Amino acid sequence: QVQLVESGGGLVQAGGSLRLSCAASGRTFSSYTMGWFRQASGKEREFVAGTSWSDGRTYYADSVKGRFTLSRDNAKNTVYLQMNSLKPEDTAVYYCTADHSTVVLTTPREYDYWGQGTQVTVSS
Questions:
Q1: Nearest alpha-carbon partner for 21 in 76, 66, 106, 81
Q2: What distances in angstroms separate CA 27 from CA 31, 43, 82, 83, 95, one per listed residue?
Q3: DSSP one-letter code for 31
Q4: Which of 56, 55, 33 is nearest to 106 (CA)?
């Protein structure tokens, strides 16, 4: 079992940057596929980015590709989401998630563990 705690959200102007962090408990962090999802007000939770523990590949939603970068530091049990060139439509609560799957999953119901979420607000 793993517990996830996100941090780093906040208010930023369009074009700015934020880095989200997700700290995980447990001693088997390196064997979890990690992901980031977001949920805007009134909308469904959507996949943002994910990285597989099995092959190290990272995948991004088309809407963030080229602007967001996911990275992980297994020594620190932490995964990061660097967000650049932020747009107002990136405004959402961002959630960190984990699963033992060997592949990156893109639907929320397939993930076993979730953080509490961190709010990101991008003003125009």
A1: 81
A2: 9, 34, 24, 28, 21
A3: G
A4: 33
Q: What is the dihedral of CA 94, 60, 24, 102, to 10 degrees?
A: 140
Q: Determine the residue type at 65.
A: K
Q: What tens-digit pLDDT sequence spans the chain (124 residues)?
A: 899 999 999 999 999 999 999 999 977 888 899 999 999 999 999 999 999 999 889 999 999 999 999 999 999 999 999 999 999 999 999 999 999 998 999 999 989 999 999 999 999 9
Residues forming a β-bridge with 121: 11
Here the tokens at position 92 are 């959402």
